[in-house]
Write a structure and sequence with these properties.
The structure holds two protein chains of two kinds. Chain A contains eight helices and no strands. Chain A is mainly alpha-helical. Chain B is mainly α. The chains are: A mainly alpha, B mainly alpha.
């Protein structure tokens, strides 16, 4: 995360030295874009805070730990789609699940849907892509995640 | 104010009042939701200003022709490679990728490249993948990337083609 600010900081200093007017214009654009999308971000924060309360990590961990591979994949892709857990929490959680004996394909379904399918980010996504394309993109992503889970299952010898 | 706006404002207000009352009355579920909200907001506040400043600079400095040449209709396979490399360096969650994708669209990037960027930004951000590999093993991460990236490119091509035919345009709010 620091490198984002190092790059942004350097970029803005260089830009300011080269052309003051253009830099101010860039900042105006940045502020305008940010304010435009802010309401959608607030909706997303609201959804995330409520869903994380309703479906905490322990619940996910219990469900995925206590089911067989196929129900596991289904549950995992459901949880992955409707929650939003940052990587620094999700991957250690998956590491723990693996040690508990949860199949790799279940983990794959969970992490891939977590990354690609965003029910909670859809308030932001639909502002840019429109509702229809948001749905199409998420459905496609869901199926890609299932394919990934199956392939992981094959390569880790869990399917055959 | 439109009707949707009124509903939106009402929901946000009710939510805030609920959080405040929860803290005053020590209502635990409400407090927990409040903490979730604060920590997620902080995560986003750390990233959004930097990301939007880069977007602003991109808008004023990068020429439309440059984007068109590397990510536009004529860019061929290179467009996808650029999209994946750019995605690899994207920080934060996929929600950061949408405003970036919108800027790329405005500068003339083609749709299939944009959807590839969005998909790749979700699954192959470099710091995240390294972190993943350290917990789940390199084999796991490698298979996941090698299976999902080609699928993302192919589905993006199809979706891009379909939407281009229908004169689809990205928007920014209403």
């Amino acid at each position: 995360m620091y490198y984002l600010y190092i790059i942004a900081g350097l970029a803005i200093v260089v830009s300011f030295i080269v052309n003051r007017k253009k830099t101010l214009q860039a900042i105006t654009i940045a502020a305008k874009r940010f304010l435009n999308i802010l309401p959608a971000f607030l909706t997303m924060i609201l959804l995330v805070s409520v869903i994380l309360f309703l479906i905490p990590d322990e619940v996910i961990s219990n469900y995925l730990g206590g089911s067989n591979k196929f129900t596991g994949v289904m549950l995992a892709s459901f949880f992955g789609s409707v929650t939003l857990i940052p990587g620094f929490i999700a991957f250690p959680l998956c590491g723990i699940l693996l040690k508990k004996g949860v199949a790799y394909m279940v983990i794959a379904a969970f992490t891939t849907t977590l990354m690609m399918v965003g029910v909670l980010t859809s308030p932001v996504e639909k502002e840019y892509l429109g509702i229809k394309v948001t749905i199409i993109r998420n459905v496609i992503s869901f199926f890609i995640a299932l394919v990934v889970a199956v392939m992981i299952g094959i390569f880790f010898g869990e399917l055959f | 104010m439109t009707r949707n706006r009124i509903i939106y404002t009402a929901v946000i207000l009710v939510y805030l009042v609920f959080l405040i009352v929860s803290f005053l009355l020590n209502f635990n579920p409400g407090k927990e939701i409040g903490y979730n909200s604060a920590s997620f907001s902080m995560d986003m506040l750390k990233i959004l200003p930097g990301a939007f400043i880069l977007i602003g600079l991109f808008e004023v400095w990068v020429k439309r022709e440059t984007v068109e040449r590397h990510l536009g209709e004529e860019s061929g396979i290179r467009g996808y490679i650029w999209a994946i490399l750019l995605a690899g360096t994207t920080v934060g969650g996929i929600y950061i990728a949408f405003p970036i994708a919108y800027s790329l669209f405005n500068k003339g990037a083609r749709l299939s490249v944009i959807f590839t960027y969005l998909g790749a930004a979700a699954i192959c951000r470099v710091p995240m993948s390294i972190f993943e590999a350290s917990f789940l093993g390199i084999k796991f991460t490698a298979i996941r990337l090698l299976v999902s990236l080609p699928l993302i490119i192919v589905t993006s091509m199809l979706l891009g083609k379909y939407l281009t035919r229908r004169n689809y345009r990205m928007t920014e709010g209403k």
